[in-house]
Amino acid sequence: MLMINGVEQTQGAPFRTSGSKAMCPALINMPEKYKIVQDPVNGPIKVGHRLIGLLDTKEIQRLRQIKQLGMVYMVFPGAQHTRFEHSLGSMHLAGLMANNLGVEDKEAVMAAALLHDVGHPPFSHTFEEIIEKKTGLDHQEAGYRLITGKSPMEDSSIPDILIRKGFDPQRIAKLATGNDKSLEGRIVSGTIDCDELDYLRRDAYFCGTTLGIVDHMRVLESILADSDIYIEDKGVPAVEELLVARMMMYRTVYWHKTARIAQNMLGIAVTANNAIDSRIFTKSDHDLLSLLRKDPAGSRMVDAVLSRILYKPILKIPYKEETVKELREILEEQVELGKVIIDVMPPEDFVGSDRIKDQLRVKIGKKFIPLNQVSALSRSLEQSFSSRSILVTSQKSVSEKVSKIINSVLPQSSLSS
User: Fold this and answer.
1) What does 257-309 look like in DSSP terms, one character per residue?
2) Residue 217 in 3-state DSSP?
3) Does pTM surpass 0.90?
4) Domains detected in the chain
5) Which residues of the chain have pLDDT under 50?
């Protein structure tokens, strides 16, 4: 039987291929079963029979209950989309990229793209650093163990499904977690990859902003490959558009001040909770909130955040490492733990070319030159990402005290800058 838009078709009935060209069933030796999933961002997504089993695993289905953007919905109410639909979109775009670049094992790349976020804890990246300190696992390592069935993820259903469908779990795990530097791996995690081409457009769509909307087909038509992805000189404008969209989404959406405050408040409760262990990588957003509510202090923090009773901004000044250290020392000494937050935006660990993604090779004549040496816009965006600020927020009950402490410690020139 053949599935067309979710409807089974008999082998003797006429049908259309995914390329929309009418074909006679007699010319097809083995009709493929597949499902069509309607995606608001990418349109109809075809899920072939080798991938349907993965889609139905409990590990992938869990992603329906993990918000893609964590606490960003506190500012952009439409940001209720999940890691599940992003994984579907990434799988779809991985297939398009593999086709354009002539990759033979397209379905392995698509399987890896579908699984690339399977290890995300509740609320995605929001509490990842805290959870890594508690469990020793980040989402990449957790994903690797879920895909391969390694401890402590021995009960994962993914490895058996992969093997039954003819995939090598070890290879898929490496592709999915950025540990394979082949062309196939670069499609999933590279300077231009299916992950970013989906999340920028998807996040912009659900947040109701045009800042992340890029012409992904123009980007896909601009890329070429040998052992890695590169572009020719004429493709630079398409990639610059992608870089600008990325910078604007980070500045405007991902690092929005209010969303960061909500995230950091809940982070206090996550840090204080001693019941969080490696099982968190099998839990949902709701599960984590329920766990935090079991502790009185955690419950109060959850209620405050969900009621949008957020900490009050006290100070925002340009970033200096010594200023952050000085503020942390004096405020931690004089203010009750958990009632004041010192945040740095962009985060201090957001550095390097891997983060900026400006090392894409540009082919000019017979030479390959890094994008940041070809594009002045790329260099200016790198400077923009490195421009940081310090934001101090506090519980309303101690806001005056925090303001007085800051005024007594920092020179007026710093406070007014």
Assistant:
1) HHHHHHHHHHHHHHHH-TT--GGGGG--HHHHHHHHHTSHHHHHHHHHHHTT-
2) helix
3) no
4) 1-32 (no CATH), 35-208+256-292 (1.10.3210.10), 311-348+388-417 (3.30.70.2750)
5) 1-30, 413, 416-417
